[in-house]
Amino acid sequence: MTELESHPWPPFIPDGAKVLIMGTFPPPEARWAMNFYYPNRTNDFWPMMGLIFFGDRYALYDSENRQFRLDAIIRLLTDKGIALNDTGRKIRRLKGNASDKYLEIVEPVPLDELLGMMPECHTVATTGEKAAGVIAHLTDTEIPRMGTMTMADSGLEIWRMPSTSRAYPLALEKKAAYYAAMFRHLGLI
Questions:
Q1: Rounded CA gap, 43 and 64, in Å?
Q2: Rg (Cα) of the chain, in Å, rounded?
Q3: Rounded percentage of the chain residues whose pLDDT exceeds 90
Q4: Is the Cα torsion angle 127, 131, 137, 143 positive or negative in sign?
Q5: How far is C-alpha 2 from the geometric centre of its chain's CA atoms?
Q6: Are the CB atoms for 87 and 135 separated by under 8 Å?
């Protein structure tokens, strides 16, 4: 049996959070370029956010030192009211890698408790199919089609966005277009 892993970080919840973006679980620590969400240099999340909010895929990355600009990331998330957490609280890696395909979610995040800490947040966006499945299960909703949302009985908007993993075969600009449409809908851009 593979080792049980607990999520390494607390939820990132800025004051006045409007949207909670949820992936599945961080990659193994050896792949981290920072000690924060979407830490893998090869993940498209931060380049995508740079492209959407600054028109520059490198806006949140220090190419010279090959590291993310965590201070700029925190400032962006705080300014826009974007909270981050993952759908897995405890997991097992069935193949020892970061692939969602080989990730067993042993304990999902307590979504209601998490949303209770964000009174202004009425939107959850998932980054990928597995995260969308977990949220659909937790909210007793159908998994929305890519780039669309469904509404939970509670009034919570649940968006399914494309995975930001480079393994997901969609160009960065196309991923950014999906997320930008959601951010526009929410009035964040």
A1: 18
A2: 15
A3: 82
A4: positive
A5: 25
A6: yes
Buried b (16+ CB within 10 A) or exposed e, 2-30: eeebebeeebbbbeebbbbbbbbbbbeee
SS (H, E, C) 81-99: CEEEEECEEEEEECCCCCC
Please state whether 140 falls in left (phi above 0), alpha (psi between -120 and 50) or beta. left
Q: Is 100 within 8 Å of 106 (Cβ atoms)?
A: no
pLDDT in tens, 111-146: 999 999 999 999 999 998 999 999 999 999 999 999
Q: State pLDDT tens for residues 77-108.
A: 999 999 999 999 999 988 876 677 878 899 99
d(CA 157, CA 29): 32
Residues near 75 by Cβ (< 8 Å), separated by ≥ 6?
none
Report the amino acid identity of residue 90: K
Supply 97's token pair: 């890698």
Structure tokens at 187: 């009035």
Domains of the chain: 4-83+119-185 (3.40.470.10)
**CA torsion 73→115→100→49, rounded to 10°?**
-20
